[in-house]
Each structure stands twice: as C-alpha cells, then as structure tokens.
Specification:
The chain is mostly beta strands and 194 residues long. Helices cover 6% and strands 40% of the residues. It contains 1 helix and 10 strands. It is globular, with a radius of gyration of 16 Å.
C-alpha cells in the first residue's frame, strides 16, 4: 500500500468523525490513525491567547487556526501541539501529515520553513519522527516519518509544529498521525519532496 496525498486528505475528512467505528480490513487505512486530527485538537504554546478555529477555504474541513510568530533562535518557543492517544511500540513506523500554509510571509520572502515532529510528551521531548517542510501561500501537507526506538504508552506522545522560525503568520489545518506498525516499508510514505 502506497500512502498518497489524496488518500491522506480523504482520511482527514473521515478522521473528523472518529465517533463512528470504521470497518477494519487490510485496505482500510483509517485503522492506523492514532490521534484526533481536527483543528479543534490544536493547543498553541508561547502565545497570550489560544487561537480559535475559523473558516478557511482550501483546506479539508474548511477550518484552521492562525498563529502569528516572531523569529527565535529556539523555534519551539511558539508551537502548535496536539496529543496522540494511541500507543507506539518499538519498531513501529510513524507518519505525521500536517496541513499548513503561510498566511503572512516574512518581509521580502514568499516561503518559510516549518519543522514538524512526533515526540515524547514530556522532557526531554525526544523525536520519534521529524522533518522540516517549506510552506507558502497555498495549503499543503508537511510530512515527517520515523521508526520508534522504544515503546510509548498511549497519551505519552504528541505532535509539535515549531512556528518561531521567522516573523510570519502560519495557518494550521488538521493533522494526522498514522502508525503502520512493524516492518513497514518507509519508502512507500510521502515526503516533503513529493
């Protein structure tokens, strides 16, 4: 099974209605989702007031949060956070896909870097999957994938999007964390170069 942008996009819509159990067979990718993808799951660290989801055209679910950030030598000082409810076992292959766009670019630029990660939920915040994508004015998915080096109980990991990489305003849409389990071929996963 090759994971594609279109398939992940469809999953975001399905993921917004997680209350209804989905059938689980070998072709049902929904069974791999281990977080709650909708925009309402975002918490933003480093801001005075939590951004509220608002209407956003062009992103699945048509909802997003908007975060204004200033450049810092520690880009995690302003970050979008989302809890992961599912357990992760040593050797599991994890894929993170975050919808994002640059609402206001840094002066003289049209793009900004956007580091995304799946990490431990407490210090030392070790990364399970991490990568940096580049965002511009159009909505796109930024990906990170990795293989877990140890076991993590459900609720002890999370998503982190580091926003203080530039003086800009970033919009965050839904985010998906998929756990493909043991011995999954990571070459089948999308990357930020796709």
């Amino acid at each position: 099974m090759r994971v594609s942008i279109g398939l992940i996009a469809a999953l975001v819509l399905i993921g917004t209605a997680m209350a209804a159990p989905a059938p689980q067979d070998d072709t049902d990718i929904v069974q791999y989702i281990i977080n709650n993808p909708p925009v309402t799951s975002w918490q933003v660290n480093g801001v005075d007031t939590q951004p509220r989801p608002r209407r956003a055209e062009g992103v699945l679910g048509e909802r997003a949060i908007s975060v204004r950030a200033s450049r810092s030598s520690q880009p995690w000082t302003i970050s979008g956070q989302m809890h992961i409810r599912g357990a992760i076992k040593q050797g599991d292959t994890i894929l993170l896909a975050v919808w994002a766009r640059l609402a206001t670019p840094p002066s003289g630029q049209t793009t900004s870097p956007l580091p995304v990660r799946v990490q431990e939920g407490s210090a030392p915040y070790g990364a399970i999957a991490e990568a940096t994508g580049t965002i511009g004015p159009a909505w796109k998915m930024v990906y990170a994938s990795g293989v877990a080096a140890r076991d993590y109980e459900g609720g002890t990991t999370g998503v982190s999007v580091h926003l203080a990489t530039a003086d800009h305003t970033v919009e965050l849409g839904p985010a998906l964390v998929l756990n493909f389990g043991q011995n999954y071929d990571a070459a089948k996963l999308p990357t930020n170069e796709d």
